[in-house]
Amino acid sequence: MNEARLERKSPPVLKLDNLAVAYKVRGGEIEAVQNVSFEIHRGESFGVVGESGCGKSTVAWAIVNFLGANGYVKRGRILFQGQDLVGKSGEELRQLRGDQIAMVYQDPMQALNPSMRLGEQMKEVLTVHRSMKDAEAADRCVAMLERVYMPDAANVMRRYPHQISGGQQQRVVIAMALLNNPALLIMDEPTTALDVTVEAAVLDLIAELRRDFDTAIMYITHNLGVVARVCTNIGVMYAGEMVERAPVADVFARPQHPYTQGLIRCVPKLGADKASSLLYPIRGRVPPPNNRPAGCIFSPRCDYVQDRCRAERPQLRQLPSGNWVRCHFAEEIDPAAWQPSEDLTLPTVRQPGNGQEIILEVNNLKKYYEVQGSTLSDVFGMGEKRYVKAVENASFSIPKGKTLGVVGESGCGKSTLIKTLIGLEETTEG
Questions:
Q1: CB-CB contact of 44 with 170 (8 Å)
Q2: pLDDT tens across 327-364, in order?
Q3: Measuring CA to CA, how many Å separate 426 from each of 157, 161, 372, 385?
Q4: Domains in the chain, please, with CATH?
């Protein structure tokens, strides 16, 4: 039996009831999110997907009240463990954030204080919310960093954010969010800055956390493959509305809303023949929140649009299967029978050059960083100089019309190599 369909005896950790979020602008307001309802129970991971600008992050910011000075919840309720968060004071919300509710942001540099060592930032979560002693907090921080596969965790605690790679910064933010075993973990594209090997490890960690600690997780992403891997349920957002809500297995087996069907058609199929399994985009663009069409908001891009769709706004309704969809004709649409329209053409691919003319050639490139010591001999230049070898003997060439992919785990020197090539860093040798 699908675990998302098991009878739930406990109340949800998070419940959104007809949530609408608006922003005040000159001359009025813009309703960025409207009529969003879902709930997350203990041990569940709810994936929120959709194109950029659909309101996914706005929903997350509304939950933790980070909407900015001009943003506010216009209507609806946000229930966390039975408490309505709408209208709570800043002090009440601060007691929840970082303790019972934790959030991992897409950009780790926006979440980390550049003037504080990473260890001090992490320990603050435990000393403020749990009144933990400094030494005990430090031990727990090191253990959590190791759990998110951070190499040399104790040394990382002594560094500043700019002294580690972007992928390592994100692992610090994730570890910080997990320190207090929160009841609700909100993750906004948490693996964007990670390489694929670390991403896989972090996704396994998220699934392990949900299973072992019975944590409720809200996972925001563009990646449907990630949703299939870590989420139990999924909510599909479009232009500020939730258009489909169902268990993950049901959505991938038989998506009900035309927008969801379009998203899944854009997912590459493992092992499929590229010539016979083309990926078709969804034509058009997401409308801005101040210019939504009348009727169904997806009607200008829908392949099944009818006159009723242009005139009447569909409501989110429950189907006999138990899933929820915002479409007048969901029961009548067969996604397997879909055919691309004539105006949906694929772009012409230019043929690459013959590869004889070399555009860029690199020979034995080295980039070292001197390590500044703290002893007196180091300060006065009497100690032996030490270096971090960020790039060592890199050699390659790129012919005209060709593409060279540079891959590797976080901290392997990819960004340093590029910065050296374009002159942002001085070359040590080569």
A1: no
A2: 999 998 887 777 666 665 555 556 555 657 888 888 98
A3: 28, 22, 18, 18
A4: 10-231 (3.40.50.300), 244-337 (no CATH), 358-421 (no CATH)
